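Predicting holo structure, pyridoxal-5'-phosphate bound.
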Amino acid sequence: MTDYPYAGRFRSYERLPEEGRPRAEILAEVREMAAQEDAFWETGKASGTVYCGDHEHYDFMTETYGLFGHANVLQRDMFPSATKFEGEILAMTLDLMHGGAVTETDPGGLVTTGGTGSILHAMLAYRDAAARHRGIARPNIVKPETAHPAFDKAGHLFGIEVREAPADPRTTLVDVTAAAGLIDANTVAVIGSAGNYGYGTIDPIADLSELALIRGVGLHVDACLGGFVLPFGEELGLDIPPFDFRLPGVTSISADTHKYGYGLKGTSTLLFRDSALRNELYFFHTGWSGGKYLSPGIEGSRSGGLLAATWAGMVRLGRAGYRRYAEQIFGTARQMLEAVRSHPELRVMGEPTFLFSFTSDVFDIYHVYDFMSGRGWRFNGQQYPDAIHMAVTRPQTRPGVADAFAADLADAVRYAAERHEAGESPLSGAVYGGVPGGLTEEADDFIRQIMTGILDTQQSLPPAAR
Ligand SMILES: Cc1ncc(COP(=O)(O)O)c(C=O)c1O
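Done. Tokens:
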């Protein structure tokens, strides 16, 4: 894939055109790009990323978005519908997370821009509450190594030390004893994932809950991925351990409406056992010449369109819709896992349910990745150990996709064994793989340079147009 597939095909703009272009022409161009990009994930061969994949549902949500896309939800006197949408999105998600089990405090939440937004807000709330109530000036959080980098981003942005507890290499679950050993008087929160991005496995949240209560620290459960699929797995009778507010030590949960909530991209929920912790995020500037300013979190203006579309998507699907989708997703994941387990050369990491990862103790798993890429599959590559990650979403539940996965995987295993036998290195290893012997400072610098180049490119014109 080139970085600029549209260069030369459509005009690129290095400045605003003097005269605006006809809308039909613009729509034709944009439609062409969308159709080309949709065609790939519609094959069902891309891991994660597109969760619903149902254009009819997207069109419905886009229509509701269009009615409020111009609305600024900071101005509630003009757009009171935002209060209905936001309040109900939060109430429905709190209910899903058994907020009703909380009686000693008043649960509440915040709609944010995505999983990272929810995690950043949560960590900021813990930091500020700990400063206010416990006088903590040098806060730290304890996260499983497997927890999402958004926690590290929070540490970076908000001056919070991030302590990493190792995961058991066999189960991929956090070592709770090690986590306990990292907690000290400056710890503001412990983290657990339900499930984690890498392996889709659920940390022992009940144990973390007990630990958090004993040590008097917060417990944030990152259910950005699992929040809208695991509860329905539980209803379907799968062995999903409780990870939500039923556990008394859980003080906050992030659950993404824009992942398995099947919403348009751009929203997530952050839920608090006690809305007093949420209110740490409230910002006021009462003495500003522009007037008294207030906002609930980091953002200022937000779009009413996203709130309307998220709300509409949720109430349209209802519990039955989510349960039906979950049943298809768990079923497809089970079928794909069976295919992986049928090969003794492959090893599934931990005990996943809707998102799984596998490695090999026999050959370099990136040989498998190479072969599957050639057959049109797009997975996420992992490291330490090298592994292939597949998040099963609705596009994979389409007829024939799981069977194609099984057939292609069988060929890929044969290919990998041959390449291993021939002593060849995989093509994708350099990009996705780990660095043998661990990540040295030099290698890290080199990787950062490459990553800087990638990000620079993503915000730039094609070279010919610069
Ligand atoms: C477990 C988990 N937490 C947090 C995030 C971050 O979410 P976002 O990319 O929406 O910011 C992800 C993203 O995949 C995730 O899988």
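Confidence is low (pLDDT under 50) at residues 430-437.
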